[in-house]
Design brief:
By secondary structure, the chain is an alpha+beta fold. Among the domains are: about 110 residues, Elongation Factor Tu (Ef-tu), domain 3 (Beta Barrel), CATH 2.40.30; about 90 residues, Arc Repressor Mutant, subunit A (Orthogonal Bundle), CATH 1.10.10; about 60 residues, Orthogonal Bundle (DNA polymerase, domain 1). The protein has 20 helices and 26 strands. The strands form six sheets. Strands 1, 2, 3, 7, 8, 9, 10, 23 and 24 form a nine-stranded mixed sheet that branches. Helix 1 links the parallel strand 2 and strand 3. Helix 1 packs parallel to helix 10, helix 2 packs across helix 12 and helix 13 packs across helix 17.
Length: about 700
C-alpha cells in the first residue's frame, strides 16, 4: 500500500536528520501515537526504547518537537518534572542541555528541595535536536505525516477495544495500543479579537529566509472530537493564549526602565547524564524586564468589548492568565513583562506575561505604551485557543489508559494540563504503560513468542505514587480531582517535597525505569557509579567524628554567623547540614580527611559534593517525613469524633478538602484516604488533630 503523503522510516544515518520518500509501510504496529508535540515525542521515544514497534502520526512532520508557545523549559515545580523525565530516560532534559541560551535556577532563596531549574531555549536548536533524536538515534520508530480521522474500535457486549486508527484518506493502520496526544488541536479554535477560525495553532513559516512567523494555521482535529463523543467520552472545554512575537530590532534596549537579567555563573544541567551544559556561562543571552502602566491598562479596558476570548466562560489558565485577565482580576498599577530571546540567531522576542487576544491593531497600540517598546514591530499577533479535553475523573486510570475504551491512552493537554513539562511527563508515562500493555497482550497470546521482557509474568502497569515523584502527583491529581481549569504543576501541590527533590530523581526512578526497559544500559551504569560514589562520600562523612573544639574553630573560620557553641562530638555529615558548610570548605580546612576526591568542577546539582550537601541538609527532616508516612499506615483505623469541626483553625484545611470531608463524612483515616482528591497532608492534619483531642 503506497502512501501519497510523506512517510519517514527511521534508521541511523550519520550527519543527516531524515530521508523523505514514499514507503511501503506495514499496516500493523505495537503502538501508534497521534500527535508530535512534547507528549507525543516522549511517548514515542519511551515505547521505542522498550522495544515496541512504534508509529508516530502527525499533521506536519516539520513541526515535531516545536515549542509552540514560550521559549523556555522548567521552572518552579516544572523543573522537578523534567528531572524525573530524564531519570526515566526521556528526551527533553538532555536536549535542553544542548539548546539553551540562558540557564537559571529559580527559588534559590529557599531550600534545594524546591529549587526550580529553568532555561531559555533556542527554539530552532531544540526542534532540530529533538527531530535528530527521533529520526536518527531511536530505532523502532516510523513517522507518518497524515491526519487521523477515526479510531478503529472492536466493540462487543462487555467492552470496547481500540485496535488502530483510520486516516483521513480512509486507510487503516492496526495496533495493540493507541496514544492520543492532540494538544490544543482537539476541536481547536483560534480567537483574535472578534475573529475566530478552527485551528490548534498559528504555525511558523519562513519569510525571506528568516524565522519571522506567518499565520499558517494547523488544522483542528474535529473528526477525532466526534469520535470521542460517539464513544461516550465526556468532553470539557478549556482555553489558553500566547503573546505576540516582537522584532528584536524594534526594541529600545537602552531605555532606562529596562532591567537586564543574566543567567547563572554555574549553569545546572537538566539531565543526570550531563556534567555541564553546552555553552559557557559568559555566552548566555540576556533577558530584560519591563512592565505595563496605567495607559496600557486604559487601552485594554476601552477595547474589552472587542475581545471574544476573554469574555468566553471557558476556563483559562489561573496561573498564566492573559494581560486582559490580569487587569480584570488584580488591582495592580503594573504587571511585569520579561523580554525573552527565542534563539541565538532569531530576530524574535517573546514577551513573557503579555498573552493577549485583542485585535492586532489594538495589541500594537497597547505594546507601544510599554517602556522600551514605543516603536515595537509585531512579527505575529497574540492569539487565544479554545480546545476540547477529556475530563479525567472517572474516564482515565492512573496508568493513563481510558476506562471506556481499552488499549487507548491519553497524554498531554487532552487531559486538561497546560505546559510542555506536564505534557512530556504524561507522554513518557503513557508510553511506558502502552508498551507494558503490548507485552501483557503478547504474553496472553499462545501464538506469539515473548522476547521483549524476560520477567513478563511479573510485569504490570506502572502507576507512579504520590510518594515517588512529581509525575505521580500530577497524574493522581488529574484522575482524582480532574481539571476544571488548565492544570499546572507547582511545588505546593506536592506533600513530600523534601523527599521528591530535583537532585535525587535518579535515585527514586532510574532503577525502576531500567527494570521496565525504558532506561538504557549506559544510563544505568552511570547512575550506579554516581550512587556508589555518593554513598561512599556519605559513609565517610558519617563515620568521621569531629570534636566540639575543632567544629567551633572551623565554623568561626568560614562564617560570622553565630552557630552557637557545640558541646558534643558530631559527625562531619551532621556538620555539613549547617548553612554555610560545604564539602569544599571542609576539604580545605581538613585536607587529611581526603574529601577532595568527591569534588569535581563545575559544582552543579549533578556533582557528588552538591548532592552530599543537600542530603545532609534534609537528613533529619526526611526521617520525620518517613515517620509521618508510617504513622498514617499505623493509625489509619483511629476513629474520628462524630462532631469533628473541619473549620477548626488548628486543622488549617483548604476549602476544597473541607467540602469533601463534609460531603463524605469519613469515620477514620482509612475512609478519608479513599475520598477522591484527599491529600496525605490533609490526612496527617486530621490524624494529629484527632490524637490531640
Amino acid at each position: 500500500m503506497l502512501l501519497k503523503k510523506h512517510f519517514f522510516h527511521l534508521y541511523k544515518k550519520p550527519k543527516r536528520f531524515c530521508k523523505t520518500h514514499t514507503f511501503h509501510f506495514q499496516n500493523y504496529y505495537d503502538v501508534i501515537i497521534v500527535g508530535g508535540g512534547h507528549a507525543g515525542c516522549e511517548a514515542a521515544s519511551a515505547t521505542a526504547r522498550m522495544g515496541s514497534k512504534t508509529l508516530l502520526i502527525t499533521q506536519k512532520i516539520k513541526t515535531i518537537g516545536e515549542m509552540s508557545c514560550n521559549p523556555s523549559f522548567g521552572g518552579i515545580g516544572k523543573g522537578q518534572l523534567m528531572r524525573e523525565i530524564d531519570a526515566l530516560g526521556g528526551l527533553c532534559s538532555h536536549i535542553c542541555d544542548k539548546s539553551g541560551v540562558q540557564y537559571k535556577v529559580l527559588n534559590t532563596n529557599k531550600g534545594p528541595a524546591v529549587w526550580g531549574l529553568r532555561a531559555q531555549i533556542d527554539r530552532k536548536l531544540y526542534k532540530m535536536h529533538m527531530q535528530n533524536e527521533l529520526f536518527n538515534k531511536t530505532p523502532n520508530i516510523s513517522i507518518l505525516e497524515e491526519s487521523v480521522e477515526d479510531l478503529l474500535i472492536n466493540e462487543n457486549e462487555t467492552e470496547k477495544i481500540c485496535e488502530g486508527v483510520i486516516l483521513s484518506n480512509h486507510q487503516i493502520i492496526n495496533s495493540k495500543a493507541v496514544i492520543i496526544t492532540t494538544g490544543t488541536f482537539l476541536g481547536g479554535q483560534i480567537n483574535i479579537g472578534l475573529t475566530t477560525f478552527p485551528a490548534g495553532r498559528l504555525n511558523s513559516s519562513d519569510r525571506h529566509n528568516t524565522e519571522i512567523h506567518n499565520p499558517e494555521n494547523i488544522e483542528s482535529a474535529s473528526e477525532l472530537r466526534r469520535t470521542f463523543k460517539r464513544l461516550g467520552f465526556k468532553l470539557g472545554r478549556l482555553k489558553t493564549g500566547t503573546p505576540p512575537r516582537l522584532l528584536k530590532s524594534s526594541i529600545n534596549y537602552d531605555h532606562p526602565s529596562l532591567q537586564s537579567n543574566m543567567g547563572d555563573n554555574i549553569p545546572h544541567p537538566f539531565s543526570f547524564m550531563n556534567s555541564d551544559v553546552w555553552i559557557k556561562p559568559e555566552n548566555q543571552l540576556l533577558c530584560h524586564l519591563t512592565s505595563t502602566n496605567a495607559k496600557v491598562h486604559e487601552i485594554i479596558m476601552q477595547n474589552m468589548h472587542l475581545n471574544r476570548h476573554v469574555r468566553e466562560e471557558t476556563k483559562g489558565p489561573r496561573y498564566c492568565p492573559s494581560i486582559e485577565s490580569k487587569i480584570l482580576r488584580f488591582n495592580s498599577a503594573s504587571h511585569p513583562i520579561w523580554l525573552e530571546p527565542e534563539g541565538f540567531d532569531s530576530p524574535l522576542i517573546y514577551p513573557q506575561g503579555m498573552s493577549c487576544t485583542l485585535p492586532e491593531d489594538v495589541q500594537v497600540r497597547v505594546f507601544q505604551q510599554i517602556p522600551g517598546l514605543e516603536k515595537v514591530i509585531f512579527a505575529k499577533p497574540g492569539y487565544g485557543v479554545e480546545y476540547d479535553y477529556i475530563d479525567p475523573i472517572g474516564q482515565l486510570d492512573l496508568n493513563l489508559q481510558t476506562r471506556l475504551v481499552k488499549s487507548l491512552f491519553l497524554a498531554g493537554q487532552i487531559n486538561g494540563t497546560t505546559g510542555y513539562e506536564e505534557a512530556a511527563s504524561q507522554g513518557i508515562m503513557a508510553g511506558i504503560n502502552a508498551s507494558i500493555h503490548c507485552k501483557l497482550l503478547q504474553s496472553k497470546s499462545p501464538t506469539d513468542d515473548v522476547t521483549h521482557h524476560e520477567n513478563v509474568d511479573k510485569l504490570d502497569y506502572w502507576s507512579m505514587a504520590r510518594t515517588d515523584g512529581y509525575i505521580g502527583v500530577l497524574i493522581n491529581d488529574l484522575v482524582t480531582l480532574g481539571a476544571p481549569e488548565p492544570y499546572r504543576m507547582f511545588t505546593t501541590r506536592v506533600e513530600y517535597r523534601m523527599l521528591l527533590r530535583p537532585d535525587n530523581a535518579d535515585a527514586r526512578l532510574t532503577a525502576k525505569g531500567y527494570h521496565l526497559g525504558c532506561v538504557s544500559q549506559d544510563r544505568m551504569k552511570r547512575f550506579q557509579f554516581i550512587q556508589s560514589e555518593l554513598e561512599e562520600a556519605k559513609q565517610r562523612l558519617k563515620s568521621d567524628i569531629i570534636s566540639p573544639q575543632d567544629a567551633n574553630s572551623f565554623l568561626a573560620s568560614i562564617s560570622n554567623e553565630d552557630y552557637g557553641k557545640m558541646r558534643k562530638p558530631r559527625s562531619f555529615f551532621d556538620l555539613l547540614s549547617a548553612r554555610e558548610v560545604t564539602l569544599q570548605n571542609l576539604s580545605r580546612y581538613f585536607p587529611e580527611k581526603g574529601y577532595q576526591k568527591f569534588i569535581r568542577e563545575p559544582l552543579n546539582i549533578n556533582t557528588v559534593a552538591v548532592r552530599c550537601k543537600i542530603e545532609a541538609t534534609y537528613d533529619r527532616f526526611l526521617k520525620e517525613e518517613h515517620e509521618d508516612i508510617m504513622a498514617l499506615k499505623r493509625d489509619e483505623n483511629i476513629i474520628f469524633s462524630p462532631n469533628i469541626d473541619y473549620e477548626d483553625p488548628y486543622l488549617s484545611l483548604s476549602n476544597e478538602i473541607k467540602e469533601k470531608l463534609n460531603l463524605y463524612k469519613p469515620s477514620n483515616i482509612a475512609a478519608a484516604n479513599k475520598i477522591p482528591g484527599m491529600t496525605p497532608d490533609a490526612l496527617l492534619r486530621l490524624l494529629r488533630f484527632t490524637k490531640r483531642n
